[in-house]
Design a protein that fits this description.
- The structure is a single chain.
- The protein folds into two domains: about 70 residues, no CATH class; about 170 residues, Aminopeptidase (3-Layer(aba) Sandwich).
- About 35% of the residues lie in helices and about 30% in strands.
- Strands 1-2-3-10-4-9-8-7-6-5 form a ten-stranded mixed beta sheet, sandwiched between helices.
- The longest helix has 24 residues.
């Protein structure tokens, strides 16, 4: 499991990733469990069900590679290599923050704030083309799981040819993250959720195609929330709204 402590005003909060079941914690205003495997009814906990794609990393690496789609994934990874795209781990944090905010403001017309806990506990992969950082993806991990949390790129700012190359860079980053996880004995690579609607005009549908190109198995995971402090419950939403206001 991965435990992340935060503080909002005077309130201590905890989030726990990759637990099998939720459980009560002492001394916190709120606890949130992400990516729980099992569905249970727990007093005071709300539950959200979601689907995601996971790759079984106990497989041979060659088998994982062969399960990826040839044209929409493997070809683009190989092209990224031929083009000399460079992948770096846990570097370029400042550049990634700028790319992430710019990318999602362009898509969602809102300012996006990266939680500092993600930077502290996460593993960041970035890609460079001719020395320029063009994309990044941030993951959370424990001894057995690795999950994609956030990502962004400069492709919306680039020419069509350059944007296509950045798409290749994004696939190369995921492949390098998969290899990184397997080398560390991690057993499951999680693509961080999947859109379950059928609207092909929804931007999330395109993201689905990207994730599905890597293969993987569709599974159900659960999020559990419990708020212990009534005062925190009243104040947390105004807090997050303030944090997301444009700088």
């Amino acid at each position: 499991m991965l435990e992340i402590d935060s503080k909002i005003y005077m309130f201590r909060t905890k989030e726990i990733h990759f637990a099998d079941y939720p459980y009560d914690v002492d001394g916190y205003a709120m606890v949130v469990f992400y990516s729980c495997r099992n569905k249970v009814d727990m007093s005071g906990f709300s539950r959200i069900e979601g689907k995601t794609l996971v790759i079984d990393l106990t497989q041979n690496l060659d088998a994982i590679w062969e399960n990826m789609k040839k044209k929409s994934c493997r070809y683009e990874i190989n092209r990224a290599r031929r083009e000399g795209i460079v992948v770096k781990i846990n570097q370029n944090f400042e550049e990634f923050h700028k790319i992430y905010r710019s990318f999602w403001k362009s898509k969602m017309y809102a300012d996006i704030w990266i939680r500092p806990e993600f930077i502290k506990y996460g593993t960041l992969f970035t890609t460079e083309i001719d020395g320029e950082v063009v994309a990044g993806q941030l993951y959370l991990e424990d001894d057995s799981h690795m999950r994609w949390i956030i990502g962004g790129s400069k492709r919306l700012e680039m020419s069509k040819d350059r944007a296509i190359l950045i798409g290749c860079a994004n696939r190369l980053m995921h492949w390098e993250a998969i290899k990184y996880a397997k080398e560390r004995g991690i057993k499951e690579f999680d693509f961080g959720g999947i859109y379950t609607g059928g609207n092909k005009n929804d931007p999330r549908y395109t993201i689905n195609l990207f994730k599905q190109s890597f293969g993987g198995t569709l599974v159900i995971r659960y999020q559990y929330n419990k708020v212990y402090s009534k005062a925190y419950k009243l104040l947390r939403y105004p807090y997050w709204l303030i944090k997301r206001m444009p700088a």
